[in-house]
Each structure stands twice: as C-alpha cells, then as structure tokens.
Amino acid sequence: MKLKKLLVCGLATVMLMSMSLTAFAATLTADEQSIITTLTNAGVPAQYVTQAQNYLAGNATDVTAAQATSINAQIAVAKTTAGSVTSFAALTTDQKNTIAADLSTAGQAIGITVTFDATANSIKAVDASGATVLSASLDTATTPATVIKATGVNMNTTIAIIAVLAMALVACGVVVSKKRFAENV
C-alpha cells in the first residue's frame, strides 16, 4: 500500500512538472495596433508589417499614446514622400534618404536606432539594449528582411511550481508521520 502511494505521488509530481512551462501569446495594446494599422494602410509589405507586429507584441514595454502618435505621423510623412511608388527599389536616392530619416525619427520614439546604408540598400534597426531588431536588404521588393529576435526560457514558473510541490511533499510527510505516531501511542 505504501509503495502504491509513493508511486502515485511520484507520478503526480512528474506530471505537474511536465506541465509547468506554459506559453502566453502576447497581445498588442490599442496604441500598438494603431501603428500596425497605419503601416498596413500606408502600403508597407505584409512581411514588414508582420515583423513590426511581432516586435511590438514581444517587447516588454508597451507603446504609449504619445509614442504611437509620433510613429504614425512619421509613417504618414514617409508615405507622402514615397507617393505612388510601391517598391523600395523604384524610389529615388533622395526619397530613400528622406524615408530613412523618417524611419529613424519613428524608431527613436520607442528607443530604436534605425540606420540606412545607401550603398548596400539596407536598413538596420537596433533597440536600446543593442540587440538587432531588423536587418533588411532592400535591393528588390522580394528580398525578405531578417528579423533577429531575442528568445530564451523563463524558468520562474517552473521553479515556483517545484517549490510548491516540495512544500506539499514535506507537508504530506509531516501528516503521515503524525498519523503513524498517533497510531503507535
């Protein structure tokens, strides 16, 4: 009987530990969603809109209303600069430089430094910690950008669950030993 109880307790512990890592889908705030909507309405290719959405959803700090307003204004200015041109390759050098400056100003609103290399036709965005958020070659409209996203495992939940399980096991041991002591007296 004792072996059966230990086996059940051990299996329950293993099952709980295996379920301790959960995934949470990050959501966008209304201000962050307004940026995505503005990018979409400006005709930005879907691959870049998706990258912006992934960055905003995965970023630990939310974009404020003032930041969103500033970014949306810069997107509108860049859209006006591009006019009816829908491909980066079709823009003039002056248009590219002006749009790059607009992107840099928009990025500064949320702590991202955007640089444009005119000779290589590439854009690089780096966040405040120095991590590369976006590195894109813009020679053709079909060249996808490479997003480098910082990832990692957060073990806080697992450690907390293991600690609770350990306390529960100790409590069970105390109860069983008290019960046995009471039966023997």
Summarize the structure.
With 185 residues, this protein is mostly helical.
Q: What do these coordinates show?
A:
- The protein is mainly α and 185 residues long.
- The protein folds into two domains: 2-21 and 154-184; 30-137, no CATH class.
- Helices cover 57% and strands 9% of the residues.
- It is built from six helices and three strands.
- A three-stranded antiparallel sheet has the order 1-2-3.
- The longest helix is centred in the last third of the chain and has 29 residues, at 156-184.
- It is rod-shaped.
- The protein starts with a helix and ends with a helix.
- How many individual domains? 2
- Poorly predicted spans: 141-145
Structural class: mainly alpha
Tally of helical runs? 6
From the alpha carbons, calculate the radius of gyration and give it in angstroms. Answer: 27 Å
Number of strand elements: 3
Query: What is the averaged pLDDT score?
Result: 77
Give the fraction of residues assigned to helices. Answer: 55-70%
Q: What string gives the helices and strands in order?
A: HHHHHEEEH
Give the N-terminus to C-terminus distance in angstroms: 22 Å
What would the principal axes of the Cα set say about the shape?
Answer: rod-shaped
Strand order of the largest sheet: 1-2-3
Strand content: 5-15%
Largest sheet, strands/sense/barrel:
3 strands, antiparallel
Transmembrane segments: 158-176
Keywords: Membrane, Signal, Transmembrane, Transmembrane helix
Protein name: LPXTG-motif cell wall anchor domain-containing protein
Organism: [Clostridium] fimetarium
